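Late entry, written up from scratch paper. The run itself happened at the end of the previous shift, but nothing got recorded in the book at the time, so transcribing now.
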Amino acid sequence: MSANGSTEHIRTCHLCEGMCGLRVTVKDGRIEKVRPNPEDVWSRGYICPKGTALGYLHHDPDRLRAPLVRDGDEFREVSWDEAFAEVERRLRSVIETHGMDALTAYIGNPTAHNFSLSRYVAAFAPMSGISPIYSAGTVDQWPKNVSSALLYGGMWTFPLPDIDRTDYLIVMGANPHASQGSLLAAPDVLGRLDAIRERGGKVIVIDPRRTGTADRADEWLAIRPGADAALLLAWAQVLFEEGLVDLGQLAGRVNGVDEVRALCADFTPEAVAETCGMAAGTIRRIAREFAAADTAAVYGRIGLCTQEFGTLASWLVDVLNVLTGNLDKPGGAMFGKPLAWSFVTLRPPEFAEGFEFGRWKSRVRGAPEVLGQVPVSCLAEEIVTPGEGQIKALVMIAGNPVLSAPDAGQLDAALPELECMIAVDNYLNETTRHADVILPGLSPFEQPHYDELIWAWAIRSAGKYSPTLFEPEEGRPAEWQILLTLAAIIQGQPAAEVDTDALDQLFFSGLVAMLTQREGSAIEGRDPGEITAQAGEPGPERLLDLTLRTGPWGDAYGANSDGLTLAKLKQEPNGIDMGPLVPRLDEVLETVSGKIELAHDYILGDAPRLRERLAREEEPLVLVSRRDVRSNNSWMHNVPSLMTGKDRCTLLIHPDDAGSRGLEAGKMACITSQAGSLQVAVEISDEMMPGVVCLPHGWGHDKPGARLEVAAAHAGVCNNLLAPGELVDVLSGNAIVNGIPVEVAPV
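Output as recorded:
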């Protein structure tokens, strides 16, 4: 404690994949200041503007501290017992009247960043019996899951660019200037890009917009939205045509190279140049430079996933890294090696013999299932369309799809038609205002923190544990207890009789038993009872300890006395760093053949559609989305310090497009798509390529009934009102929110 009575605490920021280290100053029960932690082994003193605002999130007067129950058009605070009793009354009524098929759940993006939710969604789904569920995954990343499942046998096996050691980096559809990295955990990505250039390497950014990331690159190449797959195929064609394919250390470990050669033969640079909006000579030059570099990596992210050919583009990123021998190679694209593994990475039993898609279809649209889910845009129609299997009840877990899902207006109109909606959320927001019961979780500072899945795509093998900073009020359940209680209620157990510790023991014992029977597990062949006896108290810390102790550096519950445990990690407040990534292809491959499966009929079959795209006349104007360094989807708009300065919810448009349409900077424009129209202020900038306009996502805080005072004062518009729900990537079902045809005119 300092002389003025304040104390300093070491934490990890929970907002994004940067996982930056913080020093939090507390005085008289309030957070006074949040600063970067220069001794953090991972971020070493880096922090973005969002991290400095975490104190306000904790003290935000709009954050819910008690459950809310609907009373007509209003909400009233109730006790936890009353809230769970109301949940039981409403959910059981729906299930008894309509059956379990009338109930579904939506899992939002914040789940991945919450200590409890990230670990206990894996328990909630099977214990509740809800199937299928909807998630934010089909909004921003399902193409990557599909391509990884087919290439490597694991839907969460994502290679990441080893940016600290690469000589040549191509960034496509990603803007770490704003996102800090996506499916790439690396604090201060821009500083690392600068370092590539300082050591004589090269960075190229491919994007319809000259982003903050492009400003730090050697070269920005504008590309028409949806053309990334064509560009990647043209690069592959050049590699084959000019004899530049070199598998290197991957030789003999890859199936399907000849099939890829045949696929890309007619996708020459000249054939794709017009569609890409890029000169054929430039395309050839980049392919040659990439092949010539000692180490190189292509990194593609949300801009590739959320477009017309999301799966093809995501797959081809890996194909390029494989064809040049840059996969699983230092300085290329490597696989993370986390201290603690994630339950999500366990392969579902139904895919033991390989992945299949389209095993069933959605009731109304007939959308094929992909990795157990259908597009989230199906949710609205499944609620409003009568018939057997109509959704009557919804459990909403840490999501705001009224802003974040495509065709957002349809979902906003559909949610009031539900007979029951239960929300697990800390805010009365644009989505939860439709709920019957809102069950708030704890503040991130009222619970420990250790990112569960994100370390799987971190550029180093490191980890950091953050202890609880403020003890929650007595009687407040953590999110893991809320989820287990909901699961038990859905299965018919009276709310007043739910024993979450007993349910957790059941879940934990099942995991241990599975691991003792799993080939290659650190506790293979051990007595499950011996392991559970050492495991400690119920809750997410016990699960973290399990994944640390059975991880690559773990003590395997006593088998390796020098190994890592949660207790040892807690003794290192600034974290533990086990070093840079190492090749580990043999460890991660789960394909039936034991090799990288580069070619699949499922993916190759989409090539004719791409060929049709090359022959298609270009739309005069298309829309893409963007995010800001001070935003995190829709999360951070209720923080006053992050909402200062100029209006950030504007329509970016190139001067030529603005002039031809009579648009003026600062004046209002009407932008219209097949799905709807809205009015927004114009911002004219040559950072946009001609023919493309750009709106930020996550805005639209003008809904009556939401309780977000600061956000409502800076409402903005919801770009997802313009995204037609039926527009999805054919192979993955992922939403298409980039490349939407629009018209823009002055108001």
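The chain has four domains: 7-59, 68-131+376-449+479-574, 142-339+594-607, 619-746.
(Scratch paper discarded after transcription.)
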